[in-house]
Write a structure and sequence with these properties.
single chain; alpha/beta; Aspartate Aminotransferase, domain 1; 2 domains; seven-stranded mixed β-sheet; three-stranded mixed β-sheet; 13 strands; 17% strand; binds pyridoxal-5'-phosphate
Length: 383
């Protein structure tokens, strides 16, 4: 008798009992500053569309243009017939902008991270990751044949104590941490990896587009060049997909051996065409980064005196409340007042650090942020 049914039932019951159950909401305009749900309108503080591009009309037109030239789908994996001029142009735009020899495209950041670790690591290697790295990296590290060590979040001394020159190390960190919005000390991490003849991989899903003069992300801001840079297009680029940037030989290696690349349908060429436009928009429209800086100031000025406020340099503003129930209650009170914020609970964040994950996007207004601040104060009984 298969045990799947009873196992599934038990897991679901436990999740509910722990107050950790999550649900999907049918939302309209979830990629805009005002979203609609069940006939009500809410100011959206939950999307990762940091630069406000997910509904940008120029980008929509670019995608439509791409569709009329290339059709709907790529038709095959990249090594068969799925690789087009649109893909090649996107890769060229990325390598030129970010200063690498190769860019390898993937359908998602999750698959890019998994492809990277599964393909690069062998049994004799040691993988060292920041303990708050994304689930895609943690899972791939745990399942890879390499030995995995985790260093305390952003703790340089701990990293130093784990690394040596004898073993073949790959150090992996995020540029901006998705649940905390803080930045990795990349300059120090790069120095330690170099001193130990290790390689560094940076997943900059939340930094690319947002940080750095040209939007080149955490690495541009910190002036570091990891051997491997993962960027994703589902956040600041307002679309989806991902790329790994690396040198020529590593690119050739990933192209040959990364199963997520070889055995997966290439992204639609129209998407690659639109993403090439997004690469230009991200670099050229610096007003979007300036708007984020302005919103960040309004956010800090209105909320800095509240318990739970955390200052960050990025668009991610965690408001840490502690218990899951409190986080859910505050999110629900905010929703009553027309603010859409998401409560993030374990296992996504460590126990006792449940929070609202508030995100700023360039299409919000200062008034939106002030309205959020009033709703939050009311929910916390602070006014
Ligand atoms: C740090 C980080 N890396 C990778 C991913 C996965 O990217 P994608 O959504 O493109 O699969 C995410 C997504 O949330 C992320 O936060």
């Amino acid at each position: 008798m298969p045990v799947f049914k009873s196992r599934i039932k038990l897991a679901l019951t436990q999740r509910k009992e722990q107050g950790l159950n999550r649900s999907m909401n049918v939302v309209f305009a979830g990629n805009q500053s005002i979203l609609e749900h069940e006939g009500k309108r809410y100011i959206n503080f939950s999307s990762n569309d940091y630069l406000g591009l997910a509904n940008d009309q120029a980008l929509v037109r670019a995608w439509q243009q791409g569709l009329s030239v290339y059709g709907s789908g790529s038709g095959a994996s990249p090594m068969v017939t799925g690789f087009s001029a649109a893909h090649s142009n996107l890769e060229a735009a990325l390598t030129e902008w970010l200063g690498y020899e190769r860019a390898i495209l993937f359908g998602s950041g999750f698959s890019a991270n998994q492809a990277l670790l599964f393909t690069l690591l062998e049994k004799s290697d040691v993988l060292i990751q920041d303990r708050l790295n994304h689930a895609s990296l943690m899972e791939a590290g745990a399942l890879s044949s390499a030995k995995m060590k985790r260093f305390k979040h952003n703790d340089i001394e701990h990293l130093k104590s784990l690394i040596n020159r004898e073993d073949n190390h790959l150090v992996v960190t995020e540029g901006v941490f998705s649940m905390d919005g803080d930045c990795s000390p990349l300059k120090d991490i790069e120095a330690i990896t170099r001193a130990n003849h290790a390689w560094l991989a940076v997943d900059d899903a939340h930094g690319i587009g947002v940080l750095g003069e040209s939007g080149g992300g955490s690495c541009e801001l910190s002036q570091v060049k990891p051997e491997l840079l993962v960027i994703t297009f589902g956040k600041a680029f307002g679309m989806s997909g991902a790329a790994i940037l690396c040198d020529q030989a590593t690119g050739d290696y990933l192209t040959q051996f990364a199963k997520h690349h070889v055995y997966s349908t290439a992204m639609p060429p129209a998407q690659a065409y639109a993403l090439t436009h997004a690469v230009s928009i991200v670099q050229e429209q610096s007003w979007r980064r300036e708007k984020l800086a302005e919103l960040s100031e309004v956010y800090r000025d209105s909320l800095k005196d509240l318990d739970g406020f955390v200052e960050t340099q990025t668009s991610i503003k965690p408001f840490v409340l502690g218990g899951s129930e409190l986080a859910l209650r505050v999110a629900s009170d905010c929703r009553q007042n027309g603010i859409w914020v998401t409560a993030i609970r374990p296992p996504t964040v460590p126990k006792g650090t449940s929070r609202l994950r508030i995100t700023l996007t360039a299409n919000q207004t200062n008034e939106h942020v002030k309205t959020l601040s009033m709703a939050l104060k009311q929910a916390l009984g602070a006014q």
